[in-house]
Each structure stands twice: as C-alpha cells, then as structure tokens.
Amino acid sequence: QVQLQESGPGLVQPSQTLSLTCTVSGGTVSSGGYYWSWIRQHPVKGLEWIGYIYYSGSTHYNPSLKSRVTISVEPSENQFSLNLRSVTAADTAVYYCARVGGANHFDYWGQGTLVTVSS
Amino acid sequence: SYVLTQPPSVSVAPGKTARISCGGNIIGSKGVHWYQQKPGQAPVLVVYDDSDRPSGIPERFSGSNSGNTATLIISRVEAGDEADYFCQVWDSSSDHPYVFGTGTKVTVL
Question: Which of A88, A101, B19, B81 shows its CA 20 to 30 Å from the CA of A65?
C-alpha cells in the first residue's frame, strides 16, 4: 500500500518561499510509470492542481503558478518537494501530495498539510 | 481551460440512491474520476475511468459518462457517505490538464 506524507512549515511569511516535502513509502518515486503531484485546496474551496514531476526530473506546472513553482525529486530519499516563491495570503491552503495513476487520476494522497501565509 | 460544473449540494434519504452530476463540454470523450472528501480528511478516490472502482470501495459506488454529463451514483446511501464529492478529468489538449469539478456536498437526511 503506497503512503504519502507531507512535511514542512505551517506558517510562512508573505513574500517568502513555501517549501514542502512529500515522503513516499510502500512504493518508490523512481519506479517509473507514475507522476508525482502537488495539489492544494483553499479554505472552503475546491481543489487546484499545482504540478507534477516524473522520476527523470521532467515537470509540468499549472500555468497560473508556473512562474513561482519548482517541483523536484530526490530518489535517494524517496521524496519529492514543492517550492512556491513570493507567497501571499492567497496561497494559504491545505497542500496535498499525490500519485498520478495510469488513467491520469490521483490514486494515493497524503493527509495534507495546512500552510498559512501571514506575518 | 476546461471547466467542470457540479451542483453545490445533493440531499438523499438513507437507503435511497444519490446521483451527483458533473457537467463539461463533451465530457463523454474523457475519462472521469470521482473523489470523496470528509471533513478534515484528504480526498479518497472512489471511481476512476468513468466507472471503475479501486480496491476497497463498495459496489454501491458506480459511475456513468455520456455526452456533456458524467454521474456518480451512490446506491443504498448510508450515513457514512455524507461528504463532499469532486469529479476530475485529464484534458490532454490543455496546458492545465488536471481539472477538478467545483464539488458537491452530499447530505444524508
């Protein structure tokens, strides 16, 4: 059973960089065949796809966030990470990491972590 | 980018059938996936590729997809089915390929 777990600061100051890490267990990020993704959910709102990474390092980002986002993978740690630069209050959300399954669905999710942008 | 529209809420009595719609332009040509999200929890995949169920998901959850509407069907509704439900598609022609619906709150009366 694949499990994902997000970790990182719960509070980030405006204009700073939000950094989160997703640790994968029960599977490997370098096994191939899967993309590894970040998704966020604003309070009382819907889900927004942020981007994904393949174990080779290739990435694809949501155009609305592309200028501020970097997703990286660390196969030796079985982790992948999210950096979101120049954050504002609008970036306050629950952030999830997830695996993209073969039908381009999200078959495994982390529990989510709330990140608040505030001074 | 592609837009998916869901009704904000659906109410259903226990033991009855709930139908949650997801509207999109020629959505019948795409694979539709459905997620259940309970308060304070991460979404859980309940149906993928229109009508397939992941391991561990009850047969009471099923789906259909045709024309401009996909539907999640929950048969013999139980109190534990009360949750938010989101549809999702992969739009291969878009630079923003992973699109979620607006979400539907299912209330069990």
Answer: A101
